């Protein structure tokens, strides 16, 4: 591109290497030069100097054949940070720096407004992308499984096993104490020993020190108080580990059978439960943390569902998902004369269903044959209902 500069009584046009291309003189001192969006070279200045008794100011355009200046376009797709959140928190609308883009990622229920629902996203770290025509940016939102109790038990060898909460892994901590002498006079040995004056100025400050992470931990010697924290911030403080519940009574992965173990493909999801919480679910259509079983996600067939506790106990059961039923049938025509032979439909779907007619007419409920004479003239709707073991 070219460069334009004011110099005393003229405007000079340079090329990219600062070689003079052309110049034009004016009758005043040029103080500023600007190339307008329309491609004009606009200059301003005045006659005389600051010590002159009078001065005349000028603003004018000069003919130097400029090109239109390049317009810089700023693409700012930044999203304001959000989270951490709980799965039970209400949905929030994410805020971008520039409007007009679209949002995508787990938990985004409205890509245009950026409405983010933590319940839809589920527990975990989720990447949300905001895309403008000129580019995109992303943020990560942490969703925690909050207010779910953490449980713990004592193994026969003295180890502590954690369960519950968000399913782990867990952080095991013990309290440590340090003396805080910030409110004490500076020591003046041997007259004023450290941390002694005024009396009672020194206090013991407790903090938590991590000694293990995972599902089972060996507590340090001479420790009787332990704090256990899961990844979502749920915590359990045990003040006497010697009186904890033995693990053999908390390691029961038995699955509590649901009210019905046979589902239609499009039945509503159900939440499975076990005797002891804190384990992991696995199998088609089941959420590994909540145990929510969705028949449509599992698909038709006999599905094996397994539940595993950190202590090693495992249980499983079969849930049967029936395929969607096909009740397709058809008559040879859509209208008949009253003296025509009584029509019988062809069933191409599941056999063994029940026929009915509305308004009331005379129909064989098993075969669908309509008695035209007894039914009489009119318009009728014939229905065919089939069922299976799931209803």
Description of the structure:
The protein has 391 residues and is mainly beta. The protein has helices at residues 118-121, 295-298, 372-375, and strands spanning 3-7, 10-14, 20-25, 29-35, 41-46, 57-62, 85-86, 92-93, 102-104, 108-110, 115-116, 124-132, 135-144, 150-154, 160-164, 170-180, 203-214, 216-217, 226-229, 235-238, 255-256, 262-264, 270-271, 273-274, 280-282, 292-293, 301-308, 314-322, 329-330, 346-347, 354-358, 381-385. It is built from three helices and 32 strands. The strands form eleven sheets. The protein has a four-stranded mixed sheet with strand order 7-13-12-9. A four-stranded antiparallel sheet has the order 17-16-19-20, with no helix packed on it. A four-stranded mixed sheet has the order 22-28-27-25. Strand 14 (150-154) and strand 15 form a beta hairpin. The mean pLDDT is 87.
Features of this protein?
391 residues, mainly beta, four-stranded antiparallel sheet, 3 helices
Taking all Cα atoms into account, the compactness measure Rg is 40 Å
Quaternary class: single chain
Mean pLDDT: 87
Separation, N- and C-terminal Cα atoms: 78 Å
**Strand line-up in the sheet with most strands:** 7-13-12-9
Number of strands: 32
The stretches of 5 or more residues where confidence is low (pLDDT under 50) are none
**Which structural class matches the secondary elements?**
mainly beta
Q: How many helical elements?
A: 3
How much helical structure, as a percent, in the residues? Answer: under 10%
Could you tell me the strand content as a percent range?
35-45%
